[in-house]
From TrEMBL:
<keyword id="KW-0732">Signal</keyword>
<protein>
    <recommendedName>
        <fullName>DUF4352 domain-containing protein</fullName>
    </recommendedName>
</protein>
<feature type="signal peptide">
    <location>
        <begin position="1"/>
        <end position="29"/>
    </location>
</feature>
Amino acid sequence: MRRWLAWPMGAALLFGAWLVTLATPTADADEAPFVVPAALGEEARGRSITVTVTDVRLAEHVSAGAWAGEGVWLVVDLDAAAAREEDRTALGGASLAIGERTYRASERPPSFFQQPLLVGIPREGSLAFELPPDAVHEQAVLRLSGDWETRLDSLIELPLDLADLDPVDSVELTETGWARP
């Protein structure tokens, strides 16, 4: 083989190896969730739940019945229903990803978090996320699912720009109940 031909062939082999690494799935790809994109005000249908996020607000004070809390809160109002079966179907997975950090919906106030769902009969309520003050200027992704375990299941994702939200002084969480048509 000619000496000048070795360099282009070596470069072609490196390029081919690079393409193979791009096409090779990651180690956890065989268990990754199926992402269902969502938009504010539009219905997103996963395998076990159907969700419509109706409003997103930042507040310094949040209350729910007799409970009240101060701080930086992201309040998410939504309607949700079971998609296929009612047995053990709830809004069990609710998290907010901001960069490398993930925040779980607060269990302190009475909210829609982990509430049971019915097929075809939407319920409405609120989720509350307590955030650090520096998080309100970043991009976030709201993730909702029927269970915390989302391997090989659907995961509803709604991108949010927290910097675009106008903070309010106080928000009352929507009492969990039947959604209005």
